[in-house]
Amino acid sequence: MYILLLMIIPLISCGLFWTTNKKNVINTINACGAASLLVVSIIVIWDVLRNEFVSPAFFNNIFYIDALSALILFVTVSVVFLASVFSIGYMNEELKRGVINIRRLKLYYSLLHVFVFTMILTVSTQNMGLMWIAVEATTLASAFLVGFYSNKKSIEAAWKYIIICSVGIAFAMLGTVMLYYSSVHSLGESAQGLNWQYLFQSSDRLQGSILRISFIFILVGFGTKVGLAPMHTWLPDAHSQAPSPISALLSGVLLNTAMYSIIRVMAIVNRNAGSNMFTGRLLMALGIISIGTAAVFILVQKDFKRILAYSSIEHMGIIALGLGMLSPLSVFGALYHVLNHAFTKSMLFLASGSIYLKYETKIINKVQGIFKIMPVTGTAFMLGLFAITGMPPFGIFSSELNIIMASFNGKKYIIAGLLLLFLALIFAGFAAQMFRMFYGRPLSKETHQGEINWPGTAVLVILLLIITVTGLYLPYPVNELINRARDIILLPAGG
Amino acid sequence: MFKLEEILNILSMLILISAFILVANKRVNSYIKTFRLQSMLLAAAAGTLGIYHMAAERKFDSAIIMCLLIILLKVIFIPGMLNRICKRVEYKVEKDFFINIPISIIICCGLAILVWYVISLIPDIKGAYEIMFLTNSISLVMIGLFFMISRKKAIGQIIGFLVIENGMFMAALLTTFGMPMIVEIGIFFDVLAAVLIMGVFVFRINESFDSIDIDKLRNLRG
């Protein structure tokens, strides 16, 4: 029954925001809601670790959490918790400056919790139709959050976001219809006809050619949401215009939940075909194109949040590449990368939020002397930049190493070479663009020394600790989750 | 009596033709009218399917609920809302398309033929009716997509999105005789929410940019 609690808690907190007008009460509801969500999901994940999967027997087992969903769920709730704690300081500052009023604050928090609800629904259902509905609902819930500041740029970003993602997602619906069509034709009409477990177990009886076209539609559809190039055009705008805690959620969590939906369908198609020839080639091609696109665009950006957004495209490309190769090492690397990217990128976006509040600009040239003004945030941001570009000892380094090693083992030398080349380019781009923000002295005398607020800074330090630890040592439960999730995705040995 | 498939085939053809009419329309008001017509045809298809199934199996069929929901939302509510938005967002009658109408129609014909060709290449889709149904509905999606990129007004894009949604729905209805109930109701809820949110953004775009011309949204590039 804990699964239901996972979905009820965000909805309750969303309702509670509208019962009060006091800033402190709103902040407490937000923090308590996020914290209880974290506790409940740890109970659920514990359950998954002890049993194979959790699936309460009602509505034809519509809710289903196994190791793969538990991994994404873990990433989701942890980032959500940290981002909501960060939101308190961030939004209080905006409130103090009169950028927003108390009504907008309530709107912000309630939409944030609805957004969380939709993402949790995506990972905890196994009905492919409901999964589609939940992914579409994530767009709808976050559209107002992207356009939260209601200025010209943010409205443009929000319009692009909702139009491109809704249309993209419509293609995923066509894919889901084809999946169901194949299920009805080969397995007969069944109440479970869209359940992932049911489709997965009887995948050898589905029709291969229909599954292949269904996978193409789903890859294009959910791939739009993942931000794979060339469907990525909404991503830099939405990520750069949203308030920073929302950018952290969009990049660290939302992209992963969309990727999760692709993984589910990919598992069915691979098992049906008995190999990863078809899905692997598509995923690897899109992955390399995404990494290349990001490498080129990072070099010409002027806005530091946009650079981080393009880096998200790059990392989603790396994950797609790892999944496409489908060797034990590469899938492990891809799932491990999901974890590392979520924490590292959300830390960078949150830190960029603090910098934005301090300097009131997102233009790189107007930001100087972060080390002098905000020593802790500055250090965290700098180390985070090293981490995201793949420097040891951070997590991203280890997972990228896994994927590169897997591509050499699989004799995919061209892919490995391209990946290394693009990673080097991206590092150069980050170094040339971002590192000049840290030194010198601020351009304006109005910029006072000091961190922006202590909860926000504490969140940054915690995230920095997490990404350093995951690079050196993976705690047993997390390692076990990743291994089991990998075994779900991989084809059975000898098959 | 006619065969069920024949009636559905005719209706799906009519829906596809309504998409061509939409592409030929010049004004926002006529977009809304054509969309209403298309949704009515879709509701008729759902209704026919429901009645035939009820007559054959002598039990209640969920397609009837779908038919009612389509009439309620896509024939009455959403077009009405779009009309209200149109009235409030004052706009001048001006050229609203990038590509002129005859060329647009030819492109749409090409899209339909391409879709038919691709669908008939898939070996596991057998049966003339199924090929027709899938061709018609996926062509509808493609034409909706083309409509979206060829119009400049925000409302044109909303209509394009709704046509894509209709195409999806038609595919689900005709090839699988409807998805499970909970999924279909969820889809309806999503479409409704999406259109409401897009409507709000149309107002905001109108306030910030003094027009609903999407061409003016070019602050964010690269």
From TrEMBL, chain A:
Q: What is this protein called?
A: Hydrogenase-4 component F
**UniProt main location, coarse:** membrane
The places in or outside the cell where this protein is found are: Cell membrane; Membrane
One cellular component (GO) term of this entry: plasma membrane
One Pfam family linked to the record: Proton_antipo_M
InterPro entries, sorted:
ComplexI-like_HydComp (IPR052175), NADH_UbQ_OxRdtase (IPR003918), ND/Mrp_TM (IPR001750), Proton_antipo_N (IPR001516)
Q: Where is the NADH-Ubiquinone oxidoreductase (complex I) chain 5 N-terminal domain?
A: 63-94
Which family is this sequence assigned to?
Belongs to the CPA3 antiporters (TC 2.A.63) subunit A family.
Q: Please name the source species.
A: Anaerobacterium chartisolvens
Q: Name one GO biological process term.
A: ATP synthesis coupled electron transport
Q: Report if keyword Cell inner membrane is assigned.
A: no
Q: NADH:quinone oxidoreductase/Mrp antiporter transmembrane domain: which residues?
A: 127-418
Membrane topology qualifier: Multi-pass membrane protein
Where are the bilayer-spanning segments?
Answer: 6-21, 28-49, 61-86, 107-124, 130-149, 161-181, 209-228, 248-269, 281-300, 369-393, 413-432, 452-474
A molecular function (GO) held by this record is:
NADH dehydrogenase (ubiquinone) activity
Keywords assigned:
Cell membrane, Membrane, Oxidoreductase, Transmembrane, Transmembrane helix
TrEMBL record, chain B:
Localization annotation:
Cell membrane
Q: Which Gene3D superfamilies match?
A: 1.10.287.3510
**What keywords are assigned to this protein?**
Cell membrane, Membrane, Transmembrane, Transmembrane helix
What are the transmembrane regions? 6-25, 62-85, 97-119, 131-149, 158-179, 185-203
Q: Which GO terms describe its cellular component?
A: plasma membrane
> How does this protein lie in the membrane?
Multi-pass membrane protein
Question: This chain belongs to which protein, by name?
Answer: Hydrogenase-4 component E
Which organism's genome codes for this protein?
Anaerobacterium chartisolvens
